[in-house]
Specification:
Blueprint: E1 2-8, E2 15-18, E3 30-35, E4 38-51, E5 63-66, H1 69-96, E6 101-107, E7 113-119, H2 127-137, E8 140-145, H3 148-155, H4 166-169, H5 179-184, H6 191-194, H7 209-217, E9 225-228, E10 234-242, E11 247-254, E12 257-264, E13 268-269, H8 291-306
Length: about 300
């Protein structure tokens, strides 16, 4: 077993692991570590824990030291300097007439480099801009183009649920989200209702995907013919399903008339639905899907296909 400690460098950013090197470190402490970008100031997440040796990618870099008051002051000073760097870079972008939107600026802890994050519709020739910025800051300059999801993660905001955005508060990495997840949860396929602040599919669609897949696998499809075992093998057609309550509304023949009745799923006999494999091509299409919803789905998938790089 080997001891590791998780360190995060940005709010809700990816967690990187280091060797605590004998230091007593707890969650929320600040540490100084060496990364590919140089010496960095980070926040400890979760404290020290032990993991099997084969779960760690070697060599594991060690924590240089627990942050001192001087380190904390330097980090705060860097955060303050980033606002001025944003102002200068925005002015230079306007002067060069570049079609790009500046999102954030970040100094490395050792002041060896300043990074600027921006969004743009296509490729941008910013060579002259970099020269101007290097002349002002007298250090290495890096301009990094990011997608709309990363932009939203940095800027933050409030979701339609009324809470702080998941990506800005706790979601360290983006999970793949597909339109099939919305279909599985029987949500409206209207893009405005299943899109987040960033304009892409909401990340929270992923949260309940497994639960809905499991519950849906125990239910018949709408339009399927089922046998009601609780009423002497009475046959009927499924009109609707309540996924969470595991109940099914069935249109059954009662004498010369048809009646709509609700049954528990265990009172019905039907051909089980085939569970969709992860990464597979999906399950059977629902019968009687509205033509308008199908058109919306096609339009949404086109939009999503166009923006794969952003995801």
């Amino acid at each position: 077993m080997i001891k590791i400690v998780g360190v995060r460098f940005r709010n809700a950013g990816k967690v990187y692991y280091f060797d605590p090197k004998g230091y007593k470190i707890g969650a929320g402490d600040h540490v100084i570590v060496e990364t590919a970008r140089g010496v960095e100031y980070g926040t400890v997440i979760g404290g020290i824990r032990e993991v099997p040796d084969d779960k760690v990618i070697q060599p594991l870099k060690a924590v240089i030291r627990v942050a001192t008051q001087e380190d904390d002051a330097r980090a705060q000073k860097n955060r303050a300097r980033e606002k001025e760097a944003m102002r200068i870079c925005s002015e230079k972008i306007r002067r060069h007439g570049l079609d790009m939107k500046l999102i954030d600026a970040e100094y490395t802890f050792d002041n060896n480099k300043v990074l600027f994050y921006f969004t743009a519709d296509g490729r941008i020739d910013f060579r002259e801009l970099v020269k101007d910025l290097a002349a002002v800051f007298k250090m290495r300059i890096e301009l990094r183009q990011i997608g709309v999801r990363d932009e939203t993660k940095i800027l933050g905001g409030i979701g339609i649920c009324g809470r702080v955005l998941c990506c800005n508060s706790f979601l360290s990495e983006f999970a793949p989200v597909s339109i099939k997840m919305a279909k599985e949860q029987n949500l409206s396929l209207n893009p405005t209702k299943i899109s987040g602040v960033c304009g892409r599919l909401m990340c929270c669609l992923k949260n309940e995907e497994d639960t809905y897949e499991y519950l849906n696998s125990k239910l018949p499809n709408i339009g399927d013919t089922v046998t009601v075992t609780a009423e002497g093998d009475l046959k009927g057609e499924v009109q609707s399903v309540n996924v969470l309550r595991q109940k099914v509304r069935v249109l059954v023949d009662v004498g010369d008339e048809k009646e709509l009745r609700e049954y528990e799923v265990n009172e019905l006999k039907f051909r089980p639905r085939r569970r969709r494999e992860k990464g597979g091509k999906g399950d059977r299409p629902e019968k009687g899907a509205a033509e308008q919803e199908l058109k919306q789905l096609e339009a949404f998938e086109k939009k999503e296909g166009k923006s794969k790089l952003d995801d």
